Amino acid sequence: MAKGDPWFIEVVNTQAPRGKFRFAVFDFDGTISLIREGWQQIMVPYFTGELASCPGALHIPREELAETVRDFVYVNTGKQTIYQCIELAERAARLGGKALDPRDYKAEYHRRLELRIAGRIAELEQDPSAAVNHVVPGSFSILEALRDRGVTMYLASGTDEKYVKQEAALLRVDHFFAGIYGAQDNYRSFSKKMVIERIIRENQLQGRELLGFGDGYVEIENLKDAGGFACGVATDEVKRCGIDQWKRNRLIRSGADIIIPDFTGTQKLMEYLFDKSPGSPLHW
User: Fold this and answer.
1) Alpha-carbon distance 79 to 217, whole Å?
2) Residues 36, 77: Cα–Cα separation, whole Å
């Protein structure tokens, strides 16, 4: 953190064009929603147990298997969940196990995750005001500020679309978006890259007119490939404040133009994003 300033923008790319944004794409889980916070603590042990049951894993230490799982889970974070399950099936087969259909792994993961988040969903259903406790701090402020500036916003998530729409409605953020997109049963028919390309094509955008927010490498890379501006949201999801250093480092490696801890500095962030002057100090 900058000395004496509890919230600041870490500028990674000082030359990234700003000021002409007309459209914005948001990731959902970890960028706006915290409903699914802790999903890794469900997926990694489950997948590790599946690999540990394979004949070829008999003499492999469980922690080594867990590290393997963490690696491929995190590499695929931001993509549709099915890709993590496809990787699990492939690795189980290599270890001599009887791999399940990736869709079965996905269904079991969702069952376990739903047990973890059931209380959060129930709270949101019973008390609409609880939404503020289940979003990245400042989320409502940034969405309102971009809307008021005339920016058209879309939501694109690797989580199944039916869950994204349900949870966005529970958090009272769905009305901010012109479109909400998520994973499909036919996983090849959807990707964040496809959403970004469609927005650019249908609205005849130049890349510099597109702004994006995400906490995973997939959306950051997709935005940069399209010529857009990528804002890495490195929120510590457990503390709900401050920077998660692992996220920060990963987002920087992915090509993020700036890093922020959350959206509590919305006014300062908007001033930076729509400031057309070239260059910028490393902290703003």
Assistant:
1) 9
2) 13
Q: CA–CA separation, 256 vs 190, rounded Å?
A: 23
* pTM summary value: 0.89
Strands, E, within the chain: which ranges? 10-11, 23-26, 152-160, 177-183, 210-214, 229-233, 258-260
Other CB atoms within 10 A of residue 138 CB: 19
- To the question of domain 10-34+135-273 being in CATH 3.40.50.1000, the answer is yes
Count Cβ neighbours within 10 Å for each residue of 229-258 and write b for 16 or more, e otherwise. Answer: bbbbbbbbbeeeeebbeebbebbbebbbbb
* Contact call for residues 164 and 182 (beta carbons, < 8 A): yes
User: CA-to-CA distance for 136 and 235, rounded, in angstroms?
Assistant: 7
Among 23-37, 133-147, 198-212, the minimum mean pLDDT is found in 198-212
End-to-end Cα separation, the chain, in angstroms: 11
Average pLDDT, the chain: 92
User: Taking a C-beta distance cutoff of 8 angstroms, is the pair 205, 22 a contact?
Assistant: yes
Cβ(42)–Cβ(116) under 8 Å? yes
**Confidence band, pLDDT 50/70/90 cuts, at residue 178:** very high
* Domain ranges across the chain: 10-34+135-273, 40-126
Residues 49-77, mean pLDDT to the nearest whole number:
94
More confident: 4 or 225? 225
Q: Which residues of 8-45 are buried (b: 16+ CB within 10 A; e: fewer)?
A: bbbbbeeebbbeebbbbbbbbbbbbbbbbbebeebbbe
Give the DSSP letter of residue 134: G
Asked whether the predicted pLDDT for residue 280 surpasses 70, the reply is no
Residue 91 structure tokens:
């690795």
